[in-house]
Amino acid sequence: MSPPSASGAVPNGAPASPESLPTSVAPRKYALATLLVHSGALEEDPLGASSPPIYQTATFRQPGATTGGAYDYTRSGNPTRNAVETQWAALEGAERAFLFTSGMAALATVTHLLSHGDHIVAGDDLYGGTSRLLARVCPAAGLEVTNVDTCDVEAVIAALRPGRTKLLMLESPTNPRLQICDIAALSRAAHDAGALVCVDNSILTPLYQRPLDLGADISMTSATKYPAGHSDLMAGALAVRDAGLAARLAFLQNAEGTGLAPHDAWLLGRGLKTMALRMERQASNAARLAAWLAARPEVRGLAYPGLRASAGHSVHVAQATGAGAILSFTTGSVELSRALCEATRLFKITVSFGGVASLILMPCFMSHASIPAEVRAARGLPDDLIRISAGIEDIDDLLADLEQAFDAATKAVADSKPALALK
Ligand SMILES: Cc1ncc(COP(=O)(O)O)c(C=O)c1O
């Protein structure tokens, strides 16, 4: 991986593993930034439409009563969705990709590959919704879940039960603390124990990290985030190389009716065209924000994979081509963190990440509130943690906004102390 440049910019277009385009633009090999724009199947319109058609239909007329056509029912397959799935598979270097109604629908489908009595090993710093799925839905289906610090390869090996553990569920970087785990080493260990490996790659997307290249079996992305890019669409993606696994996922997508709707697939395809440009700007902004925050006296425990001093940096640069655009930090005071979030003007207090607008939130009260307080405490997820998702705004405006917010928050907390003391 090329590390972030001095300016904080990440390499353009992540030309890690070019794929060939399945269209007339082939046979040259293209970088991912090009594959995002020239989406192959989406552009194969007989009338040459620059914007691909949306097959907004539930059913397809069949050639005969006993003969089937290419498509029959949109739950089972739709040309608009399938075109974006083909494009996504190319981005991941996958055999096949599947698009779902949300990232959680994609993750739930992965757990449906397992059977009653199977065991899952999962990280202990995961998105709150994933934690909820694993803690409250999977056990009801007879699945046992062990959460472990996935930065510690030995701890993961100790948690794996050969023959019984069927899934290792990872995030790297994790949400919200941006911890890094060694995907290749963990994949080898899981495979030795007979388990599949699923990596939630939502924070980086295949543009900056390709889990399948690192040995994972399933690459998962919440396409709600960077791929959609405008906070106006819910979608999730799974990508796999193994044909048998692909067949099982195709079966589940159809059987459970979780495939992405045609119009949403079209919106996602449109979002993908600008993803490289957006992520490059967002990552560059995040790197500048991280450098600025590192110099603030109020900031503690700053986590950003692009910081050379951050834990896991060397593992990250070996397995990813960019640092992404999410960072988190603590202030030592829930009150100060709250005041800071509320004093920002450009950074909107919003869950999720990856959209063009910069966002700020306190995970313990928002995105990760579904994890019980005692579990959060045991996992070392502090209440005063702030997570920022950098948008594409002008960096000087973002820095100025944070500066005025820090000043206002510090003053508000200082002013409130005497009042509290009087009570
Ligand atoms: C890391 C991560 N994975 C999965 C999800 C779930 O994705 P969705 O909200 O698209 O269901 C999220 C949502 O915030 C997330 O942050």
TrEMBL record:
One of its GO terms (biological process) is 'de novo' L-methionine biosynthetic process. One of its GO terms (molecular function) is cysteine-S-conjugate beta-lyase activity. Keywords: Lyase, Pyridoxal phosphate. InterPro entries: Cys/Met-Metab_PyrdxlP-dep_enz, Cys_b_lyase_euk, PyrdxlP-dep_Trfase, PyrdxlP-dep_Trfase_major, PyrdxlP-dep_Trfase_small. The keyword Lyase applies. GO terms for cellular component: cytoplasm. It catalyses: L,L-cystathionine + H2O = L-homocysteine + pyruvate + NH4(+). Residues 1-23 are annotated as: Disordered. It comes from the Eukaryota. The modification N6-(pyridoxal phosphate)lysine is found at residue 225. Its cofactor is pyridoxal 5'-phosphate. Forms homodimers. May form homotetramers from two homodimers. Belongs to the trans-sulfuration enzymes family. This is Cysteine-S-conjugate beta-lyase. It comes from Auxenochlorella protothecoides (Green microalga). The lineage of its organism: Eukaryota, Viridiplantae, Chlorophyta, core chlorophytes, Trebouxiophyceae.
